[in-house]
Amino acid sequence: MIPLITVKELEVTAGKKKLLSIPHFEIQEGEVLGVMGPNGAGKSTFIKALSLLERPAQGSIFLKGQDITVDLTLEIRRKFAVAMQQPLLLDTTVFQNIAIGLKLRNLPRQDVKNKVAYWLDKFQISHLAKKQAAHLSGGEAQRVNLARAMVLEPEVLFLDEPFSALDFPTKVQLLKDIKSIIALTKTTTVFVSHDLMELKYLAGTLAILMDGELKQTGPTEEVLSSPNTSTATFINDWKSLIN
């Protein structure tokens, strides 16, 4: 079976500094991949490169065996959706925020209405449809952000620490909801987080990124219970903080 995404000899640089160096990596269709590492490890750069938001200095990214590294067409970009830590919502209603991507794709008005209504319901924010985004709480804004991504029905959903600014009860409920939604839609997901609780709950596979390099990858519980020599100090330090 061809992996959904394959990375070969990928490098991202800023001036002379190497931000990311990944010789080979694969993401399978339907996989929920967690990415963890210290500050400055290259986690956000990794997501930006995979979602074609950042062009690598060298190397290739393949989608179902097709090299898409320099294929920046709308057709390819639309296979991905990204939800960042800060929702960056438009100064309009919740409905219009979720609808914007569909409108840019020139979907018929009724289709837009039906799809937005569906995802408003899935994220339990139907009652907020007419509310101005500027007046939302942090948890509400993140639900709108995630609905705006999922309404596009992406092949790959990229999440860059979307829960980190939320209080604990809000985070727990949203984690439950997004996990059930990912399972329902079977959406391949790449999830960057610094929170072991989030990663253990959501990610079936865990990759540890340090100094721009993937130091260990495998089933989440296996990586956390049996860290290798490169990742042991980092993982054990995190475990000691939550125990």
Task: Report what the structure shows.
It is a single chain. The protein is built from nine helices and ten strands. The protein is of the alpha/beta class and 243 residues long. It has a six-stranded mixed β-sheet with strand order 6-7-8-3-9-10, with helices on both faces. A four-stranded antiparallel β-sheet has the order 2-1-4-5, covered by helices on one side. It is globular and about 55 Å long. The relative contact order is 0.17. It starts with a strand and ends with a helix.
Secondary structure blueprint with pairings:
Layout lengths: L4 E10 L2 E11 L4 E5 L6 H8 L7 E6 L2 E2 L6 H4 L2 E4 L10 H11 L4 H14 L15 H13 L5 E5 L7 H18 L2 E5 L3 H7 L2 E6 L2 E7 H6 L6 H11 L1
Parallel strand pairs: 3-8, 3-9, 6-7, 7-8
Antiparallel strand pairs: 1-2, 1-4, 4-5, 9-10
